[in-house]
Amino acid sequence: MWKLEAPLSTVFRRRENDGEPVNDRRLRAAIAGGRITRITRGVYVDAPGWRRLKPQARHAQLVWEAAARTGSSLTFSHWAAAALHGIDILGPWPSDIDVTIGATTGGRSGGTFRRHACRHEEEVETEPWGRHRITTALQTAVDLTASMRFVEAVAVADQALWQRREGGALVSTKALVDAAHSRTGRGSARAARAADFAEPLSDSVRESHSRVLIHVMGFPPPELQARFTLSNGRSAFTDFFWREHRHIGEFDGVGKYRDPELLRGRTAEEVLLAEKDREDELRRQVSRFSRWRVPALDQPRLLFDILNAAGLPTTRPRPGR
Question: N or C: which end of the chain has fewer CB within 10 A?
Answer without folding.
Answer: C
